[in-house]
Amino acid sequence: MEALTSSLLYLNGVTVSFDGFKALNNLSFAIEAGEMRAIIGPNGAGKTTMMDVVTGKTRPDLGDVMFDGSYDLTRLDEAEIAELGIGRKFQKPTVFESQTVNDNLELALKSDRRARAALFWRESPDERRRIDQLLEIIRLTPVRHRLAGSLSHGQRQWLEIGMLLAQEPKLLLVDEPVAGMTDVETQQTAELLKEINRDRTVVVVEHDMAFVRELGVKVTCLHEGSVLAEGTIDQVSANERVVEVYLGR
Amino acid sequence: MTPHILIRSLDRGASAFLIAIAAIAILIPVLHLALPPTSPFHVPTYLISLFGKYACYALLALSIDLIWGFCGILSLGHGAFFALGGYAMGMYLMRQIGTRGVYADPILPDFMVFLNWKELPVYWYGFQYFPYAVLMVVLVPGALAFVFGWFAFRSRVTGVYLSIITQALTFALMLGFFRNNFGFGGNNGLTDFKDILGFNVQAESTRTALFSITCAALMLAFLLCRALITSKFGKVLIAIRDAEARARFLGYRVESYKLFVFTLSACMAGVAGALYVPQVGIINPSEFAPGNSIEAVIWVAVGGRGTLTGAVIGAVLVNYAKTFFTSGFLAPYWLFMLGALFVLVTLLLPRGIVGTMRHWNALRRDRASAAAEDGVREPLPAE
């Protein structure tokens, strides 16, 4: 198929309404391949709805969502979109609590997702190595056999990021990765995301301005379901309307 | 699945459990057949039938635990699949009666003659052949579960809504089977069976054999469930149970997994029903009663869901209690006791018997390993 756009992710005129309330209102923006982008905005700006639309959880009423130039995400469901290479981290860390850290990663590793394949699956040395590497990256090697439910909040966030990496996605959508983290953990997470960004495109939705500054990337500010401002963190935070929205007049 | 996978899935507890069932499957018939009725260890015929019934219930409980305990699908209509399997077996047994029936019609079962039916309905064709009947025992509940699940899981019906529609399913089937023109004997159901594969169903040796076969089926189903849940498929099931949205965003097609395990579970329930019917000698529409399905869920809850062994133990314990209490002056209060049992287990023992025992064991192990970790800092090798 011929690429319709050069961007990795391209939203054009996306509108989603819930009972008349427009969660997204003619939202348009584009993310280039290899980019890291921070999306900010006050509560109810449509950040999570935007992620729901991109990952197939919510179908938009209007507008186009294109991935990798040729895939129309509005026609696909969650599993298909995940297979295309879009990984998502939830706001509240969501891991499989009653399974070990190791099994969580094993489940996330890129593989044939069909039921029949899972029935006859055996771990290969290569997969074992991948899991070892991931555990190193997310600093959870010492707890690999612990149940995910017994991890600290910060460790869970990392495990979930590790699961995203295991999927080997082209695009990672990360929803508030540092909510509830200590300062040290926040710092480490920023480093982790930068490292991930070396070979993957990352979109971070975040409230924490200090963290966004730490990332040092292009920022898109959403308000009432559309883009309010876009630019560096300094440009955006100097924008009068952004200040108005955040501080409430 | 190869035998290798079946055996690999066994840990110590599971092996011990299998050996225990095998021992019961052999010991009880031996005590029945080898000892004279005067011996205190002699097992009378009525107990053989009773234990056979328990084993069928245990198989039904296992099928419920597979979907509820490991995939979070709470079916309140599993009695329907059990009953359908039972009817398929009952139809075979009816056709074996032949001219020995009251009306001595070589083809038509008594109730059809009574209703003045002239010929056998098409859906009764083939049931004189045992292999065909066995196929139907698995196929009919399986097909119904597949169609039902296909619609329910694709529309993402989950939780209490799914429970309610499964309940409606079994209720609807009950109403249908109560009707005479449905062709399954109406409210009398199918009964007066004479023989199965040429053996008299009333004979002690047949009853004993049926008991052992039921135990064997239970063991086989247990092995199958173990193999399933210890495979990656099982890990995905648990993942779906614990965080369905996460599993979807990882790219797993949740509905296919649910559909497969739901259908398999229905087939198991059908086999349980088929083994049940020759041992109790009757199948009628009351087997579809919603209460039966709920009772089966209680067995699993009492034993401990998500444990497999717990489902079997729960089914036997609760049914033993039922036998005990419904045969004395307490009989009118049995349903209250069952209800109270469910409430108490939910409040005080939410993990069930086996689940609680495993939990305590896990806590003890955790404490032991935590103590070991305190002894030596950084004890975990990076491998």
Keywords:
heterodimer; A: 249 residues; alpha/beta; four-stranded antiparallel sheet; 10 helices; 10 strands; B: 383 residues; two-stranded antiparallel ribbon; globular
Q: In terms of topology, how is this protein built?
A:
The complex is a heterodimer of chains A (249) and B (383).
Chain A: E1 9-18, E2 21-31, E3 36-40, H1 47-54, E4 62-67, E5 71-72, H2 78-84, E6 86-89, H3 101-108, H4 115-119, H5 125-137, H6 153-166, E7 171-175, H7 183-197, E8 201-205, H8 209-215, E9 218-223, E10 226-231, H9 233-238, H10 240-247
Parallel strand pairs in A: 3-8, 3-9, 6-7, 7-8
Antiparallel strand pairs in A: 1-2, 1-4, 4-5, 9-10
Chain B: H1 3-8, H2 12-34, H3 45-71, H4 78-97, H5 110-114, H6 130-154, H7 159-178, E1 190-191, E2 195-196, E3 199-200, H8 204-230, H9 232-242, H10 244-249, H11 254-280, E4 282-283, H12 290-303, H13 309-326, H14 334-348, H15 352-375
Antiparallel strand pairs in B: 1-4, 2-3
Helix pairs in contact in B: 2-8, 3-8, 3-11, 3-12, 3-13, 4-6, 4-7, 4-11, 6-11, 8-9, 8-11, 12-13, 12-14, 12-15, 13-15
Written description of the protein model:
The complex is a heterodimer of chains A (249) and B (383). In chain A, a hairpin with a 2-residue loop joins strand 1 and strand 2. Chain A has 249 residues and is α/β, with parallel strands linked by helices. Chain B has one domain. The C terminus of chain B is likely disordered. Chain B starts with a helix and ends in an 8-residue tail after the last helix. Chain B is an all-alpha fold.
In short, what is this structure?
The complex is a heterodimer of chains A (249) and B (383). With 249 residues, chain A is of the alpha/beta class.
